[in-house]
Amino acid sequence: MPVTDRTRVTRLADRQVVDRQVLHDVLDAGLVAHVAVVRDGVPIVLPVGYARDGESVLLHGSTGGGLLRAAASGVPVAVTVTLLDGLVYARSLFDSSMNYRSVMVLGTAVAVPDALKEEALRRLSEHLMPGRWDEVRPPTRRELAATVVLRVPLDEVSVKVRATGASTEPDDGEDRAVWAGVVPLTLATLEPVASADAPRGVPVPASVAAAASRFEALRPELHA
After folding, report:
1. Which of 123, 146, 104 is nearest to 1 (CA)?
2. Residue 39: domain span
3. Are strands 181-184 and 76-89 parallel, antiparallel or unpaired?
């Protein structure tokens, strides 16, 4: 991936990754993006459900939402996704850290045309709840009208990754008898909770059952 003045990592530059496959992997593993715009001179950041669609990111929300309306007007946006993989316990608080994979996308959002909106929403659905689209009714015309979908190209991006253990620099006054290492963190599902009005005996659908295996497959390699 090309590195611009705006996407070049200046703090711990060795953690910058320019492999586009890593960019795709991080975006495909995440569920929530934080979208930032400046509105009326004030920076606003909100969490938004998203999906990667080829070399762009799809964002969706209510047409009544001020942030997405502002983004659709052509103002610059920043979209970030961070996956937290572990807490790094070093032998000093200064050297303690986190293992993470993060993406920042800079660009301008474009509204998906109405004729393509349903397909874009299907792509979002398949990212967030794979298989669910085919288990329920399709969106109504009213629901489509109430939803905005934006597309942000993956043209100017920055990827930063830390995936190592605790610092082992010698002669820094640390007590080597103190435990150091990594506490891995991962996203996992718990037992599904049925809606109160769900008829008794209705089986858990395949899309729900598949969620646990999806997160298991996305679990990163653990580092000591």
Report:
1. 104
2. 13-167+177-217
3. antiparallel
- Under 8 Å CB-to-CB from 80, ≥6 apart: which residues? 33, 34, 36, 102, 103, 104, 105
Report yes or no: 116 and 67 within 8 Å, Cβ to Cβ: no
Q: For 28-77, write each residue's pLDDT tens digit.
A: 999 999 999 998 889 999 999 999 999 999 999 998 888 888 888 889 99
Q: Give a yes or no: residue 70 inside a domain.
A: yes
Number of domains in the chain: 1
Instruction: Look up the CATH number of the domain holding residue 95.
Output: 2.30.110.10
Q: What is the CA radius of gyration of the chain?
A: 21
Q: Which residues of 117-146 are buried (b: 16+ CB within 10 A; e: fewer)?
A: bbebbebbbebebebbbeeeeebeeeeeee
d(CA 218, CA 26): 9
- Residue 153 resides in a domain: yes
- The residue among 70, 17, 7 whose CA lies nearest residue 39 is 70
Tokens of 42: 């004030």
The yes-or-no verdict on residue 136 having pLDDT over 60 is: yes
